[in-house]
Every structure is written in C-alpha cells, then in structure tokens.
UniProtKB/TrEMBL annotation:
Record domain Fe/B12 periplasmic-binding: where: 50-304
Signal peptide residues on this chain, from the entry's feature table: 1-31
Protein's UniProt name: High-affinity heme uptake system protein IsdE
InterPro entries for the chain: ABC_Transporter_SBP, ABC_transptr_haem-bd_IsdE, ABC_transptr_periplasmic_BD
Length: 304
C-alpha cells in the first residue's frame, strides 16, 4: 500500500512543481525590485503617476499608501473600495498585456514570485515594472518602505511599519521562554505534496511564530522529500497547506495519512498535532492577514 501511495504522490509532484516553479525566481530578499533604478519618474509627481497593481496584495499595499491606480488585477476575492471602478487587467498569474499597454502605466507592480515569468513580458511591451517582495512579511514591509520613498508616501509607509513592529513585539512576548516546536509544513495540490521551508510564505509565518522548521537551512522555498526522510526529522507539529483547491487538498491529505502506514508512527500524528491551514490566511504570498494567521498558529504550535 505504501508503494502505491508513493506512486500517486510522485505522479502528481510534477504538476505541483510546475504550479509553483515561478516561486523560485532569484530576486531581492529585502525589498521591491525596480527594473529601472535610474528613473526618477513618479518621485516628484506621485499624485499623477500612473500605476497598475497585478495582484490583490499589491493592490492592498497601494490602498494603504493612498496611491491611485489606473489598472488592477481580476480576483475572486475583495479589492479595496478605492479601486472598484478601475480597469481590470486580468489575473495575477496572467495579466493581459494588451490591456496593460493601452493604460500607458508609469509602473506595473507585481509580486516578485512571478518575476521570472512576467518581467520579459513587461519588457516586450516596453512597460516599466516594480516587483514587490511578498515571500515574507518582513519583505512586504521592506517593499512598502521602498514604495513610500519612491512615491512620496513616507508617512503612510512609516505608520504601517510602526504598526507591524508594535504587533510583533507584543506577539513575541506571548511565546517568550517557551520551547520552540519542531514543525513540518506540507504544501499540496490534489494528488501530490512537497515540503515548504522557512523561505516560503507559510514557512516565514511559522518562523515568526517561533517554530523551528525541520527542513531549515536551504535556499529553496520548496523541497521534494519522501516519508522515510521526513520521519527522521520527527516533527512535533505537522501543518498541511494548500497551493490551490483547498477542499480537494484536504481530502488528499486525509487519504494519504490514512492509507500510508508510516504516518501512524509519527509522534505528531499520535499526539493529534496535525493541522490543516486555512487557505484564506495561509496563501502563497504575504498580505495584511498575517496577524490573523499568526494568531491562528498560536494554539497549533504551543498546544494551548
């Protein structure tokens, strides 16, 4: 039975890796990546600069910085009220280049996880781009500070940074003196899963919460690992996240943990410390729901 489950996992692994391959682009880990660093356009005329945000997180950041947009992404979620009548330019993964070019933006703002795919497309239509570091909360706030400086929104940016620092100080005080739990994070699609390291967004949240990722110490965001190797790590807690289709992924994980006998030998399983993460809080890129996500992690990691 174990071999059969392994074949199912291996078969689906290629699909999952393809779905998140864009997350391994080599980009700055501290702030937003300006593809035109010598340009001063937008700095002195922030109120007239034409901006497009191609992801919900980028739109949320622009809203909090009080920046107007001429284009915004299409999403099944909720966008800020400020942009309800703004032209939609397609999804975050596949913005419509023809619409983008027609808007004549000064800059297009996108997540750096999609940089390797989108940057050549923006260059082809001669549109300037800024890629925001949304792989971690700290990276998001570094990007916010950069945007505040570039578009004369330093006050708004500093207010957000101050709020973040205050929240984190209070949050860390909750766990002061507590032993750091060893955590395994599995990222799945129906039929397959891989391991998320501390370099992924969910991994960065676990690290902020004081957890110790059992696959720490690599430059990669995601790793392929078999159950025998995972067993040697002996995590205290197992977190199961979804890259897409959360209901199907939860069922896949339930079947995997039921049918693959090796999971029954994990202490985390025996102790009932296996948790399915809420996909609305634990997505693929940083956003302003991180506070709720950290609060949700608290009882999972510290068993209270």
């Amino acid at each position: 039975m174990k071999r059969q489950v392994k074949k199912i996992v291996q078969k689906g692994l290629c699909m999952l890796l393809a779905g998140i391959a864009v997350l391994t682009a080599s980009v700055s880990l501290t702030a937003c990546v300006d593809q035109h660093p010598d340009s001063t356009e937008g700095q002195s005329q922030a109120d007239s600069v034409r901006l497009v945000a191609t992801s919900p997180a980028a739109a949320q950041i622009c809203d909090k910085l009080e920046l107007d947009l001429v284009g915004v992404c299409q999403t099944s979620g909720t966008l800020p009220e400020r942009y309800k009548d703004v032209t939609q330019v397609g999804t975050a993964m596949s913005p419509d280049m023809e619409i983008l070019k027609s808007l004549s933006p000064d800059y297009v703002l996108s997540p750096n996880s999609l940089q390797s795919d989108l940057q050549p497309k923006y260059a082809a239509i001669q549109v300037k781009s800024l890629f925001l570091n949304l792989k971690s909360v700290s990276g998001m706030y570094a990007s916010i500070a950069d945007l505040g400086e570039k578009f004369n929104r330093q006050q708004q940016a500093q207010a957000m940074v101050d709020e973040f620092n205050t929240f984190m100080q209070e949050y860390k005080n909750k766990n002061a003196g507590k032993e750091a739990p060893k955590v395994l994070i599995l990222m799945g699609l129906p039929g397959s899963y891989i391991v998320a390291t501390e370099n992924s967004y969910v991994g960065s949240l676990v690290e902020m919460a004081g957890g110790q990722n059992v696959y720490a110490g690599t430059d990669e965001e995601f790793l392929s690992a078999n159950t025998e190797d995972i067993k040697t790590k002996e995590p205290d807690v197992i977190l199961r996240a979804s890259h897409a289709m959360p209901e199907q992924v939860q069922q896949m994980f339930a079947d995997e943990f039921e049918k693959n006998d090796i999971w029954k030998h994990f202490a985390a399983v025996q102790n009932g410390r296996v948790y399915d993460l809420d996909s609305s809080l634990f997505g693929m890129s940083a956003n302003f729901s991180y506070q709720q996500a950290l609060e949700a992690l608290q009882p999972m990691l510290y068993n209270n």
